[in-house]
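Q: Structure for this?
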Amino acid sequence: MSLMSIRLGIVGYGNLGRGVECAAKRAADMELVAVFTRREPSSVKTLTGVPVYSMEALEDMKNDVDVLVLCGGSANDLPMQTPTLAKDFNVVDSFDTHARIPEHFANVDAAARESGHVAVISVGWDPGLFSLNRALGGAILPDGSDYTFWGRGVSQGHSDAIRRIDGVLDARQYTIPVDSALERVRNGENPTLTTREKHIRECFVVAAEGADLERIENEIKTMPNYFADYDTTVHFISKEELMRDHAGIPHGGTVIRSGKTGIDGQNGHVIEFKLTLDSNPEFTSSVLVAYARAAARLHGEGAVGCKTVLDIAPAYLHPESPDELRRKLL
Amino acid sequence: MSLMSIRLGIVGYGNLGRGVECAAKRAADMELVAVFTRREPSSVKTLTGVPVYSMEALEDMKNDVDVLVLCGGSANDLPMQTPTLAKDFNVVDSFDTHARIPEHFANVDAAARESGHVAVISVGWDPGLFSLNRALGGAILPDGSDYTFWGRGVSQGHSDAIRRIDGVLDARQYTIPVDSALERVRNGENPTLTTREKHIRECFVVAAEGADLERIENEIKTMPNYFADYDTTVHFISKEELMRDHAGIPHGGTVIRSGKTGIDGQNGHVIEFKLTLDSNPEFTSSVLVAYARAAARLHGEGAVGCKTVLDIAPAYLHPESPDELRRKLL
């Protein structure tokens, strides 16, 4: 592993891009070279003063960047962007449409293999660290069950769904795990839980003046896929209250593997991995930067192709050398 | 990865060896070939009927075993046994003397490289899964603090120390994390904690008839290294109570990384990994078997030398293929 800094580029400068900028600043072995944007570069002001270029400038900077961290969205940006940019760069993305991961993997793998680059996809916490823990748990306790609880945290998709209702000006939706269900799983009871038994949904809604609040509440609670299968509470609040009390983007969750060992399955074990995050995008960005370090190192070793968190050994993520890690952390 | 079974051998048949036997039985891709012991083989009866051989038989079975799981102790067995057996076999051990890991690694690495085998050392939960989580946490949240709490669980070393006191017939010592300290860490307070503030020690002691209980209690509570730095409680109980209520070997613990992100460190995050184990040796054995799978696969790919949990990607541990893992777990 080189003593030289790993030179990062950021593609897309929203919440995730700003988080990568902050995380790179805290990493002693990283240097943030540039932000690339589809907006007019002069209109974008970065937190740390790092220069901003248009996407077209990428072509001339192939030798100036070791890893591009792709901070676009999974619906419209990454399916095209990741395989395209993997032709010229090592890349890391946070593609999180679970059902489409195999297809995205295949596209990115073909591009990265052909060009001799490393591409790490679906990095973050779910998919990402949660996936890693599901794999660990299943490997260690094959005779067991997996549970994933999300929250307490803001769901952007559910907040957006409420905002589309007529008469709603703004909204914030929190996904909250049901404490009693979580306790049963932690106690090793291995319960079978319905959707309604695992999570509740709490909504804070700013309605237009004179809007029919009863109708809005009913439309939320009966909305298929998003709310109909959950116990949902709706609070109408003012625009000022929303800005004051719900401006953050906290999230988190828990992955639990509960399983049996012993000749007769007489001993129970619970493995729990829990995240409590003040800022969902900043934490995801921090995971992206750790895996960007791995991408640079793997590329340096001659590795090629698409990888996920399941394919990368922990030592690649940490700035210290394997010797130091064995001495200090093992 | 081969569709053929991975053929395991167990070296040493105590609690850990029996745990490996049980774990191998639950792994569809594993076949337990033999147990090797220093005792007279005919005196050892296995749980599943797997054959028992003397250590001398190992020499003739080099082609019959893919991975040897070494179930001896870190003080007297593994420092010699792991490098010696790595000359003829892929091996996995649970060497847990933290301070001597670099030396053990160097010895095992030299032997395994020379012979072209894979040796995975210090596998279990601490060192092991806890180390993995310390590396992950530090890599993702570089501006933060690590905390490890052990228990509630039986400490064999502390129980043995009590048994050496004059007048003590038997004893069991539980290490217990201090709830209030754990809560402060979980809340992201980043406290500086003394030894006494992190754990308490609870002892259940069977004393000889007529022994001076006050002297025994005082000797326990003032014992340097083991108890003097802790708040310790001592309960005198009967042999029958000890057998009835304290026959199990539960353990567990929690690794927490607490850190900050954002341009001014304004957002806090807590990563927690927690184990609650009915049987410490059976869980450790289950981790050993998952890493034995990785050793066999790595050897099949041509890898050589000594590895730890920090050097092995999660996908190697799980029986399903990388394709299946991406589809089901990511």
